[in-house]
């Protein structure tokens, strides 16, 4: 698999050049180490299909609601961000980082003259869903997956929209901007932790 690694102070960003599908298995712990030999906190960025069956989903509410659907999460073409953090954080903190990633994605996409709406960890254009997102925690690490549709094909039980429908043509640029901005924000937070005096 062809990929490049870009290191910031506290994170590694893995840009996958080949097409890679997201199946839900990529959110398992240490996937980046097993696949790309990266051990730092990391974000893996890639483009391909999204096809997540119920057995690989982590959102119990969605599993119960969509139990009759064979492949509940589906997109013919999407950009995917799989984030892994190894610091000893709780589930609430990884959900806060998930929201940070979604805010950054919204900011980057809106810089292409598109107005989006955010509802929790989901992005919408009008009433059509642009993204899917989940955060979860294991014994080794905490992880986030953000998938953003490029094409509006795949899901049949929900109205979706893709970046191409919104006139966003430079998808690679969008991928890189989102990943780098997220890593830079994490770096800034880490530096802030190391400069702040305690309350006495």
Care to describe what's here?
The protein is α+β, with helices and mostly antiparallel strands and 200 residues long. It has a single domain, classed as 2-Layer Sandwich (BirA Bifunctional Protein, domain 2). It is 28% helix and 30% strand. The chain has helices at 31-36, 60-65, 91-110, 171-193, and strands at 3-7, 11-16, 41-52, 73-85, 117-119, 122-125, 128-129, 131-137, 142-149. Strands 1-2-3-4-9-8 form a 6-stranded mixed β-sheet, with helices on one face. α3 (91-110) crosses α4 (171-193). The longest helix is centred in the C-terminal third of the chain and has 23 residues, at 171-193. The radius of gyration is 17 Å and the shape is globular. 35% of the residues are buried. The model has no long low-confidence stretch (mean pLDDT 91).
Strand content: 25-35%
* Strand and helix order: EEHEHEHEEEEEH
Measured distance between first and last alpha carbons? 52 Å
Largest sheet: 6 strands, mixed
Q: Report the radius of gyration as a whole number of Å.
A: 17 Å
- Shape by Cα distribution: globular
Q: By CATH's scheme, which homologous superfamily applies?
A: Bira Bifunctional Protein, Domain 2
**Corresponding CATH architecture:** 2-Layer Sandwich
Question: How would you classify the helix and strand content by structural class?
Answer: alpha+beta
Mean pLDDT: 91
| Top-tier CATH class | Alpha Beta
Oligomeric state, counting identical vs distinct chains: single chain
Number of strands: 9
Main-sheet strand order equals 1-2-3-4-9-8
Tally of individual domains: 1
Could you say what the CATH topology is called?
BirA Bifunctional Protein, domain 2
pLDDT < 50 runs, ≥5 residues:
none
Number of helices: 4
Helix content: 25-40%
């Amino acid at each position: 698999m062809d990929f490049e690694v870009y290191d910031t102070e506290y994170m590694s960003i893995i840009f996958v050049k080949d097409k890679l599908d997201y199946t839900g298995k990529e959110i398992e712990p240490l996937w980046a180490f097993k696949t790309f030999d990266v051990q730092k906190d990391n974000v893996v960025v890639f483009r391909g299909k999204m096809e997540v069956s119920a057995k690989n989903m982590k959102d119990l509410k969605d599993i119960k609601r969509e139990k009759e659907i064979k492949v509940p999460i589906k997109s013919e073409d999407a950009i995917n961000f799989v984030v892994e953090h190894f610091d000893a954080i709780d589930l609430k903190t990884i959900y806060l980082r998930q929201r940070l990633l979604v805010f950054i994605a919204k900011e980057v996409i809106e810089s292409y003259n598109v107005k989006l709406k955010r509802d929790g960890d989901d992005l919408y254009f009008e009433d059509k869903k642009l993204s899917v997102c989940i955060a979860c925690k294991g014994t080794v690490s905490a992880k986030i997956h953000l998938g953003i549709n490029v094409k509006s094909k795949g899901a049949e039980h929900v109205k979706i929209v893709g970046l191409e429908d919104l006139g966003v043509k430079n998808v690679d640029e969008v991928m890189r901007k989102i990943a780098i901005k997220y890593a830079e924000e994490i770096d800034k937070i880490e530096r802030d932790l190391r400069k702040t005096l305690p309350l006495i």
